[in-house]
Amino acid sequence: ISARVVPPPSAFLQATAEGEAALLSAVRDAIGEARTVTDLFAGAGTFSLPLAAGAEVHAVEGDAAMMAALDRGWRQAPGLKRVTVETRDLFRRPLEPDELRKTEAVVIDPPRAGAEAQTRALARAAVPVVAFVSCNPVTFARDALILMRGGYRLDWVQVVDQFRWSSHVELAARFSRPA
């Protein structure tokens, strides 16, 4: 199953196909068999669309053009489970615990600034698993601490070196809430 997305000019895309594949593999490992996934800072669907092969996905992103591109891509891809999109500024209006109550896993891939407000709301939620992707180890450490203080356990972290000839790395991590 594949989906074709034509991203808008403002869209962020992963730097390399290999890096994107490694991050997607880590996210899939993190969420396991989750049947309902919320993808925060979803962009044009880097994770949402591949995950929709096995789960219903609610994608949330602040850029309306990216959400429209993701929605068009999903509607033209037969065989995917339902993908819903929501344009929302997650820095100013994060998804709250009651909005996440039916979600079995969250994928979060914020920009370099991290996702402090959204992470604080996630820390209060009962979502069993969080797959966290970050391009900034400093903001990841801050946000990871928020989740752990909220009762989540950091299960693993992987480094993905997709920014060739630079000191920048991507991180993928799995957080779980002990039963």
Structural summary, described in words:
- This protein has 179 residues and is an alpha/beta fold.
- Helix 4 (116-123) runs parallel beside helix 5 (137-149).
- It is globular.
- The protein has one domain (33-176): Vaccinia Virus protein VP39 (Rossmann fold, 3-Layer(aba) Sandwich), CATH 3.40.50.150.
- A 7-stranded mixed β-sheet has the order 3-2-1-4-5-7-6, sandwiched between helices.
- It has helices at residues 17-31, 48-51, 64-75, 116-123, 137-149; strands spanning 36-40, 56-61, 83-87, 105-108, 129-134, 153-160, 170-176.
- Helix content is 29%, strand content 23%.
Number of helices: 5
According to DSSP, the number of beta strands is 7
Class by helix and strand content? alpha/beta
User: For this structure, what is the CATH homologous superfamily?
Assistant: Vaccinia Virus protein VP39
* Sheet with most strands: strand arrangement: 3-2-1-4-5-7-6
CATH class categorisation: Alpha Beta
CATH fold naming: Rossmann fold
Helix content: 25-40%
Q: Which value, in Å, is the CA radius of gyration? A: 15 Å
Give the CA-CA distance, first to last residue. 34 Å
What overall form do the CA principal axes indicate? globular
Strand count, sense and barrel status of the largest sheet are: 7 strands, mixed
SSE ordering: HEHEHEEHEHEE
Q: Count up the domains.
A: 1
Oligomer: single chain
- Supply the CATH architecture: 3-Layer(aba) Sandwich
Assess the beta-strand content as a share of residues: 15-25%
Unreliable spans are none
Average pLDDT reading:
89
